[in-house]
Amino acid sequence: xxxxxxxxxxxxxxxxxxxxxxxxxxxxxxxxxxxxxxxxxxxxxxxxxxxxxxxxxxxxxxxxxxxxxxxxxxxxxxxxxxxxxxxxxxxxxxxxxxxxxxxxxxxxxxxxxxxxxxxxxxxxxxxxxxxxxxxxxxxxxxxxxxxxxxxxxxxxxxxxxxxxxxxxxxxxxxxxxxxxxxxxxxxxxxxxxxxxxxxxxxxxxxxxxxxxxxxxxxxxxxxxxxxxxxxxxxxxxxxxxxxxxxxxxxxxxxxxxxxxxxxxxxxxxxxxxxxxxxxxxxxxxxxxxxxxxxxxxxxxxxxx
Length: 304
Prior knowledge:
The chain is of the alpha/beta class.
């Protein structure tokens, strides 16, 4: 493996640690909080801190556990990805972070403030573009600002939207309607709507899963370019391990339902990211390891 940079692969609570490889450091997966020292300046709080969250749903006369003491963090300006088995509770986690659901136990903090159960604190992009068909692309992009309480004046928001529409290749389509655009162009508009939201934290829920392989690859490169320009704090759900490693600074690997963090993988590759890193031995090693963890979880599910 190419060891030109420091790297860490961390197991979650109760997980079996990997054997150290070439001096690699292994630590439990816990929220990354700066240490307090008497003479140090107050640390910048994370953009998101999910602390020991438990959630379950009522199923007839019993309860179905979904999240089991799940903790994770997203630092300011960090891109974090989540991978895990289908149905493990990733979307439920997003609903809790967004305030649509309240956990039975645990807390959600943003910028050091308790926001558990509070809505309107995040910018969200779902799997499908979810553009309103009766609104133009320009008006769809402006929607997030229209519903926000701290939105800028419309003239200012419109000028900003038009600038970004040009930069993402949608110039000339401002007055078009969603059905007139390709799937990739609709996803760009949906992402731009989330990007222009006044909320700092962006939750992206498998935004490229419905795209064909070539369009998905184009969108990954496009997302990296756009993210480099503004460095928003991002939490990104995907089932694609290569996509997670290509985009993220860290990757959380979740267990089967009820989900907890099995491993936290630090991605050491320099930014801006190059597509070619997907062919490097260090990248392939991480991809194989995460795939193995996922297969082990699937095997557990089949045996349970």
